[in-house]
Amino acid sequence: MKAVLSFLAMGILAWVLWRLLARQEEADPDFQKRLRADERRARANREASARQLPPQEPRQPKS
To answer: Count of domains in the chain?
Structure first.
């Protein structure tokens, strides 16, 4: 019974945290810009490491 309650409590906590994070992301107008910029930087670094080039430094997205 304890295991079921623990599992249920973890599920509820995960859902609450997920909702809080989603609400915070929705309230941030620049979130998607920063996310896309981070994805581009990560992709460039993966490709650079495959070609043994120096990695890029993170840049601020253009407004």
So the answer is: 1
Residue stretches of the chain with pLDDT short of 70: 53-56, 61-63
For 62, residues 6+ apart whose C-beta sits below 8 A from its C-beta are none
Q: Which is nearest to 34 in space by CA: 61, 62, 57?
A: 61
CA 34 to chain centre: 10
Give the residue numbers spanning the domain of 23.
2-51
Question: Which tokens go with 28?
Answer: 């941030």
Quick check: pTM over 0.70? no
Asked if residue 13 belongs to a domain, the reply is yes
